[in-house]
Each structure stands twice: as structure tokens, then as C-alpha cells.
Description:
The structure holds 2 protein chains of 2 kinds. By secondary structure, chain A is mostly helical. Chain A has one domain (about 5-190). In chain A, about 75% of the residues lie in helices and about 5% in strands. Chain A has a two-stranded antiparallel sheet. In chain A, strand 1 (about 110-115) and strand 2 (about 115-120) form a beta hairpin. In chain A, helix 2 (about 20-45) crosses helix 3, helix 4 crosses helix 5 and helix 6 packs across helix 8 (about 170-190). By secondary structure, chain B is α+β, with helices and mostly antiparallel strands. Among the domains of chain B are: about 5-50, no CATH class; about 165-350, Transferase(Phosphotransferase), domain 1; about 455-590, Rossmann fold (3-Layer(aba) Sandwich), CATH 3.40.50; about 595-705, Serine Threonine Protein Phosphatase 5, Tetratricopeptide repeat (Alpha Horseshoe); about 800-908. Chain B is built from 38 helices and 15 strands. In chain B, the strands form 3 sheets. In chain B, strands 1-2-3-4-6-5 form a 6-stranded antiparallel β-sheet. In chain B, strands 10, 11, 12, 13, 14 and 15 form a 6-stranded mixed β-sheet that branches. In chain B, strands 7-8-9 form a 3-stranded antiparallel β-sheet. In chain B, helix 10 (about 245-260) packs across helix 16 (about 420-445), helix 12 (about 275-290) packs antiparallel against helix 14 and helix 13 packs across helix 16 (about 420-445). The longest helix of chain B has 29 residues, at about 345-375. Residues about 230-260 and about 375-450 of chain B have low confidence and may be disordered. Chains A and B meet through helix 2, helix 3, helix 4, helix 5 and helix 6 of A and helix 1, helix 3 and helix 4 of B.
Amino acid sequence: MSASKQDEVTQLLVRWSEGDTGAIEKLTPLVYDELRRLAHKYIKREREGHTLQTTALVHEAYVRLVEQKSVHWQNRAHFFAVSAKVMRRILVDYARKSGSAKRGGGAQKVTLDEGAIISRGRASELVALDEALQGLGEIHPRRSKVVELRYFGGMNNREAAEVLKISEASIERDWRFAKAWLYRELQQQ
Amino acid sequence: MQPERLEKIDQLFQSALDLAPEQRPGFLDQGCASDQELRHEVESLLAAHAQAGNFIEDSASEVAAQFLAESSNEFSLVGRSIGQYKIVARIGAGGMGEVYLATDKMGRKVALKLLTARLINDEQGVARFMREAQAVLTLNHPNIVTVYDIGRADATHYIASELIEGQSLRERLKLQGEIKVAEALEIAIQISSALAAAHQTGIIHRDIKPENIMLRPDGYVKVVDFGIAKLMEGQKPTAVATDVTTKVMVKTAEGLAIGTVHYMSPEQARGLPVDVRTDTWSLGVIIYEMIAGRRPFDGETVADVLNSLIERQPPPLFRFSADVPETLEWIVNKALRKEKGERYQTAAELLTDLKELRRRLEFAAEQERTGSAERGGVSQVATKGERRTFGSAEPVADRTADSGPHTTSSAEYIVNEIKRHKRASLIAFMAILMVSAVGAYLYFSKTNDTTISSIAVLPFTNASADQNMEYLSDGLSENLINALSQLPILKVIARSSTFRYKGKEVDPQEVARALGVQTILTGRVEQRGENLVVSAELMDARDGTQVWGEQYSRKAGDIQALQEEMAHTISEKLRLRLTGAQERQLTKHATQSPQAYQLYMKGRYHALKLTRAETDKGINYFQQAIEIDPNYALAFVGLALAYLPMALTSGVPSWEVVPKAKAAALRAIEIDETLAEGHATLGSTSFWYDWDWQASEKQCLRALELNPNSAGGRFSYAHLLSNTGRHEQALAEIKLSRELDPLSLLTNALEGQILFFAGKYDEALDHLQKTIDLDPNFWLSHLVISRVYSEIGMHAEAIAAAKKAGELSGNSQSNAYRAYALAKAGKTDEARAVLDELLKLSAERYVPPYNFAIVYNALGESGKALDYLEKGYEQKDVRMVFLKVEPIWNSLRSEPRFLDLMKRMRLE
């Protein structure tokens, strides 16, 4: 990893944590590229039957992309937040694509790994969820963020609290409201 | 929803959740009071919460890794909004970023280009880009893609522009290889029209390449990405600071960014400031590529391409396309002048020339149609004023700016662009930096690490007391020249130019300047007892430093091995990267016999003196060499090259010597088909003797294919082109020849002759005078200049020049031209006197019939002139090849006998 890319990512993380919302737009593609590159490398190296761990990937990307000397936990949390955003986009895009492909392609399903299957129903559910989450973001951005971090980013409440700089209790309250709100939205559709 | 309202809902929801379900209705009675809507809202949320169960509790992130691994796609923005634009689909990527199909708030489809993060991190670059972009917005031209809007939404910079249906010129070239002249011209006209308009407003494109040219199905050509390249220009090469990275970048760039490099102007490649003339250069490259189906400057690596575009002349276009108009060749040459001062100074000038050419071609096509209609007795005259593409009957509207309204408003199209990997944008950008760096390095570096691309081998000094050893010093130098000229990556000055320095004390740096090379090889040969001591020195003339120097002591019999060793060492010292084949070529033993090798050198030494007696000696040596080694291909070429000039310059009938030359040349390529000079010589005999123009052309082209440095091949080819009336092509070819052989008197005189036959009398005079200044004792320069003087009515000068030629050469041809000049000056009696001399001479020796024909024609005796021409045909007089282009015969051109002759010579 070139020093300049590390610099760039670290700088952007700092800027984002300092409130520069534009920074995340620039960070996202960088992180995405790295994650995808790692995933491809991993697939090439490993034989079939291995499960690709998202968290492992994100950790590796983090180590590679962020200059370790000057980091504190804040940066790490923010990095994982960016990853959550990336994951959300990947999943939704994939679901969107498989959903539309399926319409003409019969009942085949997209196999991910044991127990994790996105069926046609699940795919459209994901797309709907994403849209509902956007709606929630418009009226209550923080609650939508909490969902993004927990559901798409795989974070626990403590980690999400670090990113959003609020208490874990607030995270939990946001979560249960958002969950109910989203569920209702999806039911109504 | 009001934030307070939302907070209220949240508060009630959270509190109710903390209560046992049966307590909630009472709590809500109180909390919502009479607000039924609020109560409903909270209750529905509570109900949802109760039903939701595990909904979204299990993170979806784990499956994302699998998607990542499977995804080959880019980070997708599809479905998102950027400013007022809603992104519909990703349609491609360019050097600057991703391109999306999007809709604006009116529902109009646009191409939305998003600048990459890397680029927009350079704040200054963005500022500069935004300024430039504003100017681009004001461009309104049918051949320039309309930019609707440039701006930023949050951190994303975007450009929204007209969406174009069709394919890029790159895709078209991929599908088709090359493009027909008429269509290529049409495309070039539209591009130059776009450039002219942009240049007028001070906007330089900087990145004109087939990827940026869109071809619409309706025939419109649209240039995209105006001024955008400037953003990339401002980038600083921080990411490529270390050596290792540098190498990696260059390597990575080969596949991806090389497309951009090919169209760079020399100044751009060298990292120098650019102006509008960089765009006209790039367009020149595109025109070339459309016609030839290949790029004019190419190479395996970025550095090779740069080297090529800065240093080399591309092969003439007609090599690739037989029907390329000479004017187009000329136009492309002018666009691709290395010196920007010699190029088209504005795109408008280029546009004018292209349009004029189109007009002429259309006119010619019209004439042809009208003519054939008349001949066929059908009154079918093409409608005046109707625009047609030449060579096709399909009417096409003029699509450039000056031709009325255009139809861009209905632009609802899907762009069909090359899909490229997102990383390509970053790598392309890196490559640009690298290219500039490499360019600067190649051209400003004063170290010996630089690849050197040109050399002149000066004749080695014979330092022996024995003058008879001179054949060795001369021969070694010539053989080194021949060996090195086999390397197409190296420009090697031909023997006839470097040997003009023989025996002179010279300043190598001055010589290098005169010959246009970077390095000079000098050497000396001395006999010490049994051994030959050869010393050689290679000098970098740019700074006067010695690149290499060595002294060898060898037996005379080992001289061939020494020559090969030296050629190899020199190529190493020049840092040339040789392919295996080139390596073998350098060290390919021409003969296994040291004795034959020495005889060959002796043969060359004598034959090159060109007098009859010396030529005979030379022939004798070649024959001895061949006796020893019957498979010595070079000796056969030497033999052919000794025979052929005898027919051209001395009074030897062609049938006595040319068939021998031809047989020797045939034998040479039978032994070694890859011998360029063998093909060149055969091309020459087909031309002078067989009058088989096609065969001659084939052989010349094969020679040049085998060795682009082949001075013989270039010379013969230029002569053929000129005499068959392809004047512009001949001029292009002779110029290339002159680059390799700048001081050759023969090459320079031929250039004068070609200019003369092309009707460019002023230029011909100028050039011939320079040739005479170079060496006043070369008869041919005087002979040709005499012809020019006669044609422009400077009779006294014509007579004097022909006289001079006669004094220097003693040949009958000079006398014939003198008689012609005299007759033209009205001095008929003196002309008759010369005729009498010639007739007397013909009793003693052979006087070519063509020469008599000239004199009789000048004296107005056309019947006799035709009789002699007929004899010339029967005797295969080599001078008959001038029939088509020599103005002397203009008075006979309508004579049936002359026409018949022309027909038999396939010169109509």
C-alpha cells in the first residue's frame, strides 16, 4: 500500500470525524476498492468451501488503508462506519440486480453460503429496506445511521456509539424505534 | 413531519415500550390526549415492534464479503441522485472518472460524468478545472458535445452533457481496421471544425484521441471532453516518487494508458507547455490512423512510443492505402511536423486544406460521372449544388459549423462507450505523469544511461603507411554501418553521407549536427606486423563525452568477427534493447570465409569509385569472393550494384549489364531472402530495365519492410514514384531518404529532379543549387539544373550547366541536354553541331538512342525523335523510364506513335 493512499485515507477519516461530511463521499470508493481487491485476492488464494468473513476483510482493509501510528479508536470506528456504508451499497446493488435478473430467469436463487441465501423475496426486501432507510434518513438521519452501522456494518451498540458519539442507551433507543418504523413501512407496502 | 412531532412520537413510543403491554393503553390515553393521529402513529409503531421479531437483527454484512468477491462491477451509484440528476445506469469510464446515464429534473437524459476522488482532491486543480469548464459551457458548435451543466453536489464534481448515440472512433477502428479515404476526410473535417471553433475561444482540447471522438449514426461527429485534460495536467507526481513505483507504473500503464500516449504531441510528451498546435498534431495522428489502420508512432512500451513520436518519421500513408490522395499525405505530414512552428498553426488552416481537398475530390468524382455519362450517351449530369461524398452516390449534408442548422436538440441517446475499469482512471493519470517524466528524462538527461537513437559511423582512418590497406578501413566502416542499420530502432546515417568526411579533420560535434545524429563513431585501422590494430571511439555529441572507446588487435583474417563484436558492443553502449532476431542479425556471419570477406571489401572499395576501370576491378573482386563462397549473398548484391550504374552513367548498353545485375540480385535474395539491399537492387532493375512498375514497387517495399534504414530501398522507391507520376509520394519518400543520407549527392540531386518533375521549379532550383554548393564537381546536379533552367526560359544558364555536366562526366547524355538547351535558346546551328558530334561518337561507341531522340525533338524533327524512342524501346534504354514525366516530350504527347509507346511501357 502506498504511503500516499494511507495518508489520504487517514486524512479523510480525520476530516470526517471533525465534521466534514464531504469526506465520506471521497472515502467510500477508496474503501470499496480495497475491500473488493482483498476479497478477490482471498478468493483466489483460498480453496472452495471457505467462508469469506466480512469482518476479517474489513479489518485487513483497515490495517492496509489507515496509517497505524497516528490512529486512535475514533478513526477506527469511522473506518468501520465507511465500511458499513460500502456494505450497504454492495448488498443493495446486488439485490437490485439479482432481483431484476430473476424476473426473467426462473426460480434460481443466489447462493451465498450456508444459511445465508438471498432469495428473490429477500432481494426485493433488501431493496425496499434500503429505500425505507433513505426515507427514515430524511426525517431522522441519526436513526437511519444506527441501522446502517448495525445491520449493514455488523457493529454492536458500543461500536456504533463510538462512531456517532452518543451513549449506548441512545443507540438502543434509536435502534428499536428505527426497527419498528422500518418494519411498519415495509408491511405497508 | 415536524421534528417536534417526531420527537413526541419517539418519546411516547420509547416510554410505552418500557411499560408492560397492559399498562400502555392507559399511558397513551394520557400522553396523546385527544390527538388520535398521534395515538395511531405510536400504536402502529408499537404493533410493528411487537411483530418485527428478528427483523434486521442479524447483520447482513457477512454476506457482503461474498458479493464483494463476486463483483466485477464498479462501485455503483445507480439509483442515487447527484444534485438534480438521478443516475440511471453506468455507461462507461474515462480518464477523468465515471460516466453515467442520468436524467435531469425535466426528465431529459444526459451523460453525467463524475470526477474521480483522486482528481478532485487537488483543490487547485479543481479550481482551474472549474474556470476552464465555464469556458467550455459557452462553446456552441455542432461538432462539439454540448455541456449543459458543470457543478458539484456535496463532494462530487460533475459535468452533465449531451448524450450521444453511436460509437467512438476507437470502437469503429477496432471493428473496421481502417476507414475509407472519403469518410476519413469527412470525419477529419468535422473534428478540425470543432477544434477551430474551440481554439477561437482560447480553449485547447489537449487530449484529442479516437476515444474522444463520437460518431453518430446520422453522420455527425462529436468531440467530447474539451479542456478536461488540463485538470490532469496540474497533478503533481507525488505518488510516483520512488524508482520502484516508477517502474511499476510504467509497466502497468502499457495496457491501459498507452492509448493516450500515442496521440501526444512531442512538446506534450516532453512536458513542455502546449498550445493549439498540440491539437492539430493529435488530429494528424488520428487521420493517419484512420487511413493506415495503424498508428504512426508505436512501440512496445510507453518509452518506445515517446521515442518514436519525438524522433521518427512515420512511413508514408500510401504504403497502407493505394488510393490515398497525395494532398492528404501532404496534409498529414504537415500536421505531424515535429517542430510546432512548421505545423499547421491553427486548426482553421488545417480545416481549409481538408475542405479544399474534399472539394477537389468531389469535383474529380463529378467529372468522372459526367464524363462517363457523356461517353455512354446518356444525359445524366449530376445535379449541381447537391453535396455528395466522393466515391459514393449517397448525398450527405455538410455537417460542420458553417452549414446551417443542426439537430442536436433531439439528443436522446444512449452513449456506447468503452467500459473500463475504474482503476484505469487513476492509472491513466499516473501514466501521464510518467510519460512526461520519461519524456523529460529521455530528452534532457545528459547521462549515458539514455537510449540513443541515432548514430553516424565516420570512415575509419587508415593509419597504415600502406595505402593499399585503405579498403580495410573503408570496408570496416561500411560494414558497421550496414550491420547497425539493420536495427530499425536506430537511425544510422548512410555511407554516402558519412564518407564525405573521409580524410578530413573534423569536429565530431559539428558533424553530428550536420548529419542530425546524437552519436558519432570514429576509428582508425593500423597494421602492426601481422596484426591489425583497430581503435574505435563512440562519442555522445550532445555533450562531447566519450560513451565508449576500445582498441582491438586482431589478425587480418579475424576482421569479420571483429566487425560483429564491435556492432554488438556499440548497440549495447547505445542502450538499445534488441530482440533476439536483431541480435542474430548483428552477429550473422555474412560469410564463413575470411578471405571472401576481404575480397568483398576490396570489391566495394573499387566499385564505389564509379569509373569504368575501377568498376571492372570491383566486379573482379566480387567474382573472386563468390568463387570462394558461392553462398555469399552480400557479394552478389555488391556485384549487382557494380553492374547497374554502368548502364546509367557510362556508354554501356543496358542489355549488356542490367541482366547481370538482375541475376546477381535474384541470387542474393535466393540465398538470403531477408537481405534488404538485395530486394532494393532487384526493385531497381525492375524499374530501369523491365519497366515492371508493380514488381519494382513490391521489391522496394519489401526492402523497406526488412530495413526501414535501407538507403538503397528508399532511393529506388522515390525514383519509381517520381517517374510514374506520384510526385507528392516521391517527395515524401526522398525526404525520408535524405534523413538517412543527408549529404549524399545522388540523393540530393534526385530530390531536385523529383521537384522538377513535380513542376516545382523554384524549389528544384533552390535544392539543386544547394547540392552544387555541397560539391560543385558532381555532374548530375548540373545536368538536372540545366533542365530546370531550360523549362523556365533561363537558356544561357541551361546551356552553361549542361556544358559543365559534360565536362565533369564526359557522357553523351550531357551533350544531348546541351543540344536541347541550345535549340531552346534558338541557337539551332550550335545544337546541330552537338548533334553531329554525337553522331560521330556513335560510330565509335554506344550512344543511347534516347539521347538522339532528345536532340531531334528539340530541333523539331519529331518523326526522327519518335524513331529513336522506338529504338530506345527495342534496346531497353534505361532512360526510357523518363518518358512519362520529362517535359521534353510534352510536344509529342498527342502523337499516336508516342501514345502507343507509352501504352507498351505501361506508362499511360
